[in-house]
Amino acid sequence: MRDWFKSGSPWIWLTAGAVAAAVLAVAGVLSLTALRGLGHFWPKQVVETTFQERDGSTIGLIGEIREREEVAVRRLREAGFVITGNDAFAERVLMKMGNKDVTGVDFRWFPVPLLGKVNYPKDLITVERREWGNFYGHLVSVQEDGKVVASGEAAWPEVKARVARASALFKQTLSVEKHDIGKVNYEIEKLRLQARGLELQGKLTEERKAEFNAQRDSLNAQFAVLQERIGILRKEIARDTLKARVMDGKEVEIKLAQVADIYRANDMGLFEKLGHYAGKLAEFVSDDPREANTEGGIFPAIFGTVMMVLLMAALVTPLGVMAAIYMREYAKQGPLIRVIRISVNNLAGVPSIVYGVFGLGFFVYFLGGNIDQLFFPEALPAPTFGSPGILWASLTLALLTLPVVIVSTEEGLARVPRSVREGSLALGATKAETLWRTVLPMTGPAMMTGLILAIARAAGEVAPLMLVGVVKLAPTLPLDGFFPYLHLERKFMHLGFHIYDVGFQSPNVEAARPLVYATALLLVIVIVVLNLAAIRLRNSMREKYRGMETV
Prior knowledge:
Helices cover 60% and strands 14% of the residues. The protein contains 17 helices and twelve strands. The relative contact order is 0.10.
């Protein structure tokens, strides 16, 4: 046994066990996240039953059963429920009732012993609305301008066709508002800034005023035409309604303009459910959020996260590489450089929120405020760069990850054999040529390693971003079709902040919980994809210069 311990085998097995435990833990977390998040998009069966209230009255229930758990019967009796029998525990279910505009609540726990017979009628409809969440009920009729066009079983194919029509008109209206009217508003604001700039310079003549007024009148005429077009579209959307019967027998009218989707989960086959599931996943990654970010998609958050990471990488890589080159290749190795290296290493341990406070004070207020004074005086007092935006967020995270890139690059430079440098110099190359053509290419894998670590950390940071640019809901993306196309001053959405907002700031926690898991899984996938791209580039560079490393 003593010889076995001396051989080091126990420590090898212990290390392997620790690695295996860590891998299993990561796999377990990812599996739980995927199960909870991806399961949210599967069409769930809608139940119809009854429930006995505390006062003995019986009410009807329609909704989705989301969770089950056991609870002490004593607690239920203390809450006023009449539970018969001698069992110590009873099951209760969390039901999503929807119909918030009718009942005032979306989710509620119900003790199973007080539920009546549970049925799954095939004619129950699930209506996903753009406001007020889901609606559950029995479809009664479809109406056009207040007149019934179909009722009973004939109403189902009719309502599906009209919902598709209303959705197409809604997307058309949204396109006119975001693109056509957005372009007119952009041109009007551009004219205002030009006029204000000439006014500040004392060059706004009457002739120029008349020219600006003529252009503004033309744009206002275009705006009026577009507004009229939107009015026609909205009138077309508003013509159709459906009438459905809810759990208490009351009939409720819903405008199809507010319907995002409608389906019968209880009447779906396997392939219909798979198609519905694929559509909802596509909607999740491609649509804008709605209903306080608890429904719809998260495309703006995905776009903002990827764009911020790419900007951060473009900023931190040259800064970190140049700093490492200076300290390793040009600076005299002495006490000052040693102090700088210690300081760089210590910066890696500074809390990220401190970087956020620095970014807000220096980048936003000082640097951005001065940029506004020098280059955008016509827009003042409204700030352009003097407010949080994606540029300042990227710069803040570049500073946060700068020590990682510097240290990795320095280690890569130190691993380049001295004989390679001497051979290049002996062939007549200058020090700069040796560095640029020989040393830096060989250091590429180390630089990419630093960049990979920087991306992994920056993509998941949230605290500093809350101060320097991230918002709950951004009206426009930082990249669009208007000059200069890339708007670095704009605020943006971020997957990490979206998780925080939906999970902790949502008014409807139960509805938001599955989206927290789904968004967290998507954030992990985005980080993995970005890292894999960098790792692939690093590996190709490593293979290219493998022979030179052994010289």
